[in-house]
Write a structure and sequence with these properties.
226 residues; 6-stranded mixed sheet; 5-stranded mixed beta barrel
Length: 226
């Protein structure tokens, strides 16, 4: 996926989940943060961040914060990006061969999954999770407890009993990672649910991305270590 009108700035602080203060062209600017997660290891005062200028003159903030330089590692932290890049990758043939349908935000029973897909007689559901937490070349998810994530894993497992295929795709929003693991230190219940989903037949994918200040593109799978 491609961004437009990208400019660098210096991160100052984050008063709440939705906004941050940055230094841009020598002035303090309030910007929208496109990730409501904690991101404490990313948004450190003094770091370079990248902003996308908005095109709506009625917005309260003129810019969106989309990426950060974490000590030389460029991390895309746009929470809306993973679904977009997954869709681009899947439609290009990377996910399943012969894909004929990829429909976002599809309800099944009491569940709502990121994508429903069809390929010939095959059909299934996918949940996409963005991953921005890195520790020494190991990427981990989640960076904060997520009961919603646990619920998604249990619902995907239930789909298998109805003849659907099911998958979780972790979009790694940075480059050069060695492997992916669940973050049992932060949320052991999610790790347990992921291991149970894998044992039942839910497909687990971790896809690394090429990251530039103005783009994010799926490039390769990395090892999933449970």
């Amino acid at each position: 996926m491609q961004y437009r009108n990208i400019v660098p700035a210096v991160f100052l602080d984050r008063p709440n989940r939705f906004i941050a203060h940055v230094e841009l062209d020598g002035k303090t600017e309030t910007v929208h943060v496109k990730n409501t997660g904690r991101c404490r290891e990313l948004l450190v005062p003094g770091r370079t961040v990248w902003l996308e200028a908005g095109d709506n003159p009625n917005r309260k903030t003129a810019y969106d914060l989309i990426a950060v330089d974490k000590d030389g590692l460029l991390v895309n932290m746009d929470a809306q990006a993973p679904n977009k890049v997954f869709a681009e990758w899947a439609r290009s043939g990377g996910f399943v061969p012969g894909l004929t349908l990829l429909r976002p935000e599809t309800t099944w029973g009491s569940s709502r999954f990121d994508f429903y897909w069809e390929a010939g007689r095959r059909r299934g559901f996918v949940e996409v999770k963005g991953c921005t937490l890195e520790e020494g070349g190991l990427c981990r998810f989640p960076d904060a407890p997520t009961q919603r994530g646990v619920k998604h894993l249990r619902e995907l497992t239930a789909c298998l009993d109805e003849g659907y295929e099911a998958a979780v795709c972790f979009i790694i929003q940075m480059e050069g990672m060695r492997r992916f693991s669940p973050n049992d230190d932060t949320h052991p219940e999610f790790g347990d649910a992921l291991r149970k989903a894998d044992a039942k037949g839910v497909r687990l994918l971790a896809m690394e991305c090429a990251v530039t200040p103005d783009s994010l593109t799926v490039t390769r799978p990395i090892e999933v270590c449970l």
